[in-house]
Amino acid sequence: MDPMMDEARNAATQGRSFSEIEELPPMQEVYIAPPPNPDPEISPTSAPQASAYAAKASEKPRMQPRQVARQAVTEIKKTPPKLFMYSIGAAVCLMLAVTVGIMLHNHSQEADENTGSAVSRAGASSGTAGKRSSISDAAAQTTDNVEASSPVHAVVPERIEAESGPVTVTPRYNKRKAKVTPTPSAVIPGQLTINSTPEGAQVRIDGRTDPSWVTPYNLPGLAPGQHSVSVSKAGYAAENRTIDVASASKSFLVVQLAQITATAAVTSTPSGAAVFVDGKDSGRLTPAQIPVDRPGNHTFLVRKQGYSEEFTTANLQAGQTYHFAPTLRVLGNTGEIKTAGKFKKIFGGGGETSGMGTVSVKTQPKGAQIAVNRRVVDKNSPVEFYLNPGAYVVDITLSGYKPIHRVVNVEKGNKFAMDETLERQ
User: In which domain, by residue range, is 318 found?
Assistant: First the structure.
């Protein structure tokens, strides 16, 4: 019997059964030695290269971002405000200084580049000339060597000599563009048209005039610029203007002439009398300065209550001043006007009319109304009445005829006769 089997039997009899085993025992590995490797051939190679991967540096401990932010805020709060402001100011100044330095550096670099480019161009031209001269010298030396070594006549190239002239370097930034002188344009004269109200005024331009220069007037060929224009007319105030005439344009000038009026200086004794001009009340009392727009004949009348009226007729011209200064007479009393009847004419007035004067008024046609000092006489023309001595204003009116206005001076015992022919209106 095999002893191995016997040992297994003994072990089986002595140990536990398979069902009683809770965990199998670990299996043992059987090691089998590998066959020996053949000796590697030694090749003349370089030394073994170092590993491509280096050992990793020891990692630093990481800090949480929140912790870092808190530490930064704490440090900022600890910083004094003045120091903080100083730091900001210093940073701003530093930035400005750096900016200015960069700008200056760029400017100087551009200037150097411009100058260098000009110099390089000049150097290139001179270098080219030098190369040409060196090539010609080398060619000459080669020719000499060939002639010395061989008696054969060789073709000698012509020597090229570079013309070396003066080199002028002009930086580009120093160039200035020549100013272009503008060509003066041709002067085209202008045109001036002058008109006035009223028309027919004489025109004077820059002190020159002509009898034909009467408004409305058009003056062509007037030089551009300012010109003085004067417009005048008899009876009107002259007007002076300065007008600017443009080249190749048409200018217009319209002048309103103011009429020169005559003046009537009216005074009276006593003063305070109403002044009438051409039968119309002027609304002024003496003494008064009354303008008269229209030249020619005009009638001036001065009237005051209780005094005789005074009037005159004058021919006035433009710009003339006419003086009228009448002395007013006290009017007689019209309270005792007495008409003369047939019996009084035959037998006389008797004692009632003694010391009075007689006024006789006849008109053609008859029937005109008679008023003495604005008091109407009882009878129409023809009529005869008695008045006390003095001055009286007699008005004769008839419908359809022009009125007649007279001033009479009645004297004691005398007779004043009026024989008037009325004119139709």
Answer: 262-324
